[in-house]
Design brief:
heterodimer, A: alpha+beta, D-Maltodextrin-Binding Protein, domain 2, 2 domains, two-stranded antiparallel sheet, 18 helices, 9 strands, B: mainly alpha, MetI-like fold, about 75% helix
């Protein structure tokens, strides 16, 4: 056989071998809007990396958290890339479940990442996850209702201001609640908000000896205020409202004030999703005794489990999905308002983004001002603004959330609910060995 | 109108009312799938401009047919496997009981009382070490084990209703055990076996705990598909309704087609 005939055949055989050995990455993600967009745009990654195939597992946040925890704790190796939050990253890194991401491609521009965000995903100074998008909390209000009531927004509203404004704008006859806040029990639901309220009232979850502080004065002040505010000026059935329900209420025009995630800004500002798009005003999250911990910090980030058999390939994908190039791609293909926010300085200096997202400055300031390592007036032994970075917190937060919801519905007085929450938390912390009997 | 006609009319009306109450959530879900997300969360209304946007987006985000195929394979596979194991065991318990038969039956049923999460980690580790994670074989085995107690119990009840004399007559005519089962037991109890099988298929189709925990991308059935459309941040009711309608459609059609057999089976032996 002539060499000229053999060579193409050999080339074809080699190419087929490579094609047959394309590496498959299984990516587990939460199903929020930004992650769904990432899944949609991943064809660009597969085109530029023909030797990598992506398989997607897209699940609801709580289901995903349980699924990933089972897999990573048993070294199951089912996933190569995982979407995790700032709560899991340091805890899982400490246990050796995640691959450190300190060696990244030269063009990654790590310095561009917002410091509080990457710090929240690090353990012992090393990043164990790279941020895909980040959020804080802020206040939304109806400019038209404020104008009608003769209210002028201040640069930094206080909770007393909010109470006064909620009273003025509350209009049950026209189905408008003066204030909408999270009431649905859960550590990521009502307790995300209540924790920030407790922080700004000068409270903390634990003292330096891990003694729970849930029935302390700042907690009673904060929860008492929250219950009264919502009962006086909140919507009906506030105890079953989470982010989605309040988003629906505000976007339909049923709330005058709402304090919640910065992620809502894009949705409220979009006329296709919101009836009040032209009337939405933005302000920093209100403060009470101290500005410390008055607004939260959360990011969804991509991490590589130690059990993955394709760590280097996974790193290539993670670097791509969290890069400036990806943000530009999302901005160009999906519209700049849909570009993942809160991760990079360069996003906020981008003119296209600034034009598409007039709330960008508020979000950037909120994220920059949130410090998970110093979020309480008195010193505390934990990291996290709206959560406590210990594995026991999911159970504690949800239990306390149920007690707070009971106080909100009037099933229990605030003091009794907080005393019960204190006792339950003491039991959990004693069993976990943080405090002695 | 005579008293009996009135009574029949009343019972008919009650039956329709009960059927309406049971079917209403399904009807509302189907309706919501044709709404926009904004309409889905607005005040409930029967009149709205219908749209297929949610169906389009649902199909764009995930390959429905891949999930549906997995559902069909694991549901029917586990049912066939469960019947193959349960028929001989129910036969022996019904026709050749020992003093431990009742205890064994109760023990089998008691395994259904254990919350599945209690055995999640051991099963996960077992599957990890045997390479069964995210495989249809693994899920089929789990579903078989999950439904086996119910399948054995139902078949045992149906077999018990069959007069022993019929099988004895067969034996007198020289039939061996296999012939007895094949030519007498199975044809005579077919409605019962069919309804047991149908119930097993439905239970497997709707199972969500194991499918979410033991599969990821390759073997995930429709229950995992639905789980990707609810979200604590963002509006999802229309998409979730569209995905749920697509997920239940095959089993709903299957149920309609086989409802005669199912009712016949469930009432089998009820009136002697």
């Amino acid at each position: 056989m002539k060499l000229s005939r053999v060579l193409p055949l050999a080339g074809f055989a080699v190419a087929s071998t490579f094609a047959a050995h394309a590496e498959t990455l299984t990516v587990a993600t939460v199903n929020n809007n930004d992650m769904v967009i990432m899944q949609r745009l991943s064809d660009a990654f597969e085109q530029s990396h023909p030797d990598i195939d992506l398989e997607w597992v897209v699940l609801e946040e709580n289901v995903l958290r349980q699924r990933l925890t089972t897999d990573i704790a048993t070294n199951g190796g089912q996933f190569d890339v995982m979407t995790i939050g700032t709560y899991e990253a340091p805890i899982w890194a400490e246990r050796g479940w995640l691959t450190p991401l300190d060696s990244l491609p030269a063009d990654y521009n790590r310095e561009d990442l917002l410091k509080p965000v990457i710090d929240g995903l690090s353990y012992n100074g090393k990043p164990y996850a790279l941020p895909f998008y980040a959020e804080s909390s802020m206040m939304y209000y109806r400019k038209d209702l404020f104008q009608k009531a003769g209210i002028e927004m201040t640069e930094q509203p206080s909770w007393n201001d909010v109470q006064e404004w909620a009273a003025k704008t509350n209009d049950p006859a026209n189905d408008i609640a003066g204030i909408c806040l999270r009431g649905k029990p859960g550590w990521g639901e009502n307790m995300a908000f209540v924790s920030t309220l407790v922080n700004t009232y000068g409270g903390r979850w634990f003292d330096m000896d891990w003694q729970p502080q849930i029935n302390s004065k700042p907690w009673q002040d904060a929860v008492g205020f929250y219950v009264k505010l919502l009962n006086d000026y909140g919507p009906a059935g506030a105890s079953s409202n989470g982010f989605n329900e309040n988003l629906a209420l505000f976007s339909r025009g049923n709330c005058a004030i709402w304090v919640d995630s910065t992620v809502a800004a894009g949705k409220l500002y979009n006329p296709a999703e919101s009836k009040v798009a032209n009337e939405v005003g933005f302000a920093p999250a209100p403060v009470a005794v101290t500005p410390k911990g008055s607004h939260w910090l959360w990011s969804w980030a991509l991490a590589i489990p130690s059990s993955s058999s394709a760590k280097e390939t996974a790193k290539t994908f993670v670097a791509w999905a969290t890069s400036q190039d990806y943000i530009a791609l999302a901005g160009e293909r999906e519209g700049w308002a849909s570009a993942p926010a809160g991760t990079r300085e360069s996003t906020y200096s981008n003119e296209s983004y600034q034009q598409a997202a007039p709330f960008a400055g508020f979000v950037l300031n909120a994220i920059r001002g949130a410090d998970p390592t110093d979020s309480t007036l008195e010193p505390s032994p934990y990291t996290g603004v709206q959560y406590v970075g210990i594995p026991e917190f999911q159970a504690i937060g949800t239990r306390v959330g149920q007690m707070v919801a009971a106080a909100l519905t009037g099933d229990q007085p605030v003091k009794q609910a907080l005393d019960a929450a204190q006792r339950a938390t003491e039991r959990t912390m004693t069993r976990a060995g943080y405090i002695e009997n | 109108m005579t008293n009996s006609t009135l009574r029949r009319f009343g019972i008919g009306l009650l039956a329709w009312a009960v059927a309406f109450v049971i079917f209403f959530p399904i009807f509302w879900m189907m309706l919501t799938g044709f709404k926009t997300e904004a309409d889905a969360i607005a005040d409930p209304s029967l009149i709205f401009p219908p749209t297929l946007d949610s169906y389009a987006e649902v199909q764009q985000r995930a390959d429905y047919f891949k999930f549906a195929l997995n559902s069909v394979i694991v549901s029917f596979g586990s049912t066939i496997l469960a019947l193959l194991i349960a028929i001989p065991s129910a036969y022996s318990m019904a026709f050749l009981p020992t003093k431990r038969t009742k205890g064994t039956l109760l023990w089998m049923l008691s395994t259904k009382m254990l919350p599945p999460v209690g055995v999640l980690v051991p099963i996960y580790l077992l599957f990890r070490d045997t390479g069964l994670l995210d495989t249809r074989t693994g899920l089929t085995i789990v579903y078989t084990l999950m439904n086996l107690p119910i399948v054995v119990w139902m078949l045992y009840t149906f077999f018990k209703d069959l007069p022993k004399d019929i099988l004895e007559a067969g034996r007198m005519d020289g039939a061996n055990t296999l012939q007895e089962v094949w030519h007498l037991l199975l044809p005579l109890t077919l409605p019962g076996i069919a309804s047991t099988g149908l119930l097993s298929v439905i239970l497997s189709w709707n199972e969500a705990f194991w499918s979410l925990n033991l599969t990821s991308s390759q073997a995930a059935p429709l229950t995992a598909y639905i789980a990707s459309f609810s979200s604590p941040e963002g509006l999802f009711w229309a998409k979730l309704s569209a995905a749920s309608t697509m997920a239940i459609a095959p089993i709903l059609v299957f149920g309609w087609l086989t409802q005669k057999q199912m009712v016949r089976g469930l009432t089998f032996g009820a009136v002697k």
